[in-house]
Design brief:
Pfam families: YadA_stalk
Low-confidence stretches: none
Shape: elongated
Structural class: alpha+beta
InterPro entries: Coiled_stalk_dom (IPR008635), Serralysin-like_metalloprot_C (IPR011049)
GO cellular component, one term: outer membrane
Organism: human gut metagenome
Strand content: 15-25%
Number of strands: 6
Number of domains: 1
Radius of gyration: 24 Å
Protein name: Hemagluttinin protein
Number of helices: 1
Helix content: 10-25%
Mean pLDDT: 91
Length: about 90
């Protein structure tokens, strides 16, 4: 046992407020109980941001934006758009 240091016991691991470093990549998959490291977490966040969000119109055209950006909804002719209680309204 290291005084004021990390402890590994039958109840778990106490890192004594220290960082755990040089952690190998864990298995990131359904059902995995592996630990992941900062690099894997960063990659996952970037993948989600890059994938983004998209909408496709009846004419087959689509618009895609990274997460965090806004998709504009515009009316045409006599159709107006507005936001009503958190929902997009077209009338």
């Amino acid at each position: 046992i290291i005084e004021n240091g990390p402890k590994v016991t039958k109840d778990g691991i106490d890192a004594a407020g220290k960082k755990v470093t040089n952690v190998a990549d864990g298995n990131v998959a359904k059902g995995s109980k592996d630990a992941v490291n900062g690099g894997q977490l960063h990659t996952a966040i970037e993948d989600i941001k890059t994938t983004g969000f998209g909408l496709k119109a009846e004419d087959g055209q689509s618009v895609k934006k990274p997460l965090g950006e806004t998709i504009d909804v515009k009316g045409d002719g006599n159709i107006k758009t507005s936001v009503d209680n958190g929902a997009i309204k077209m009338a």
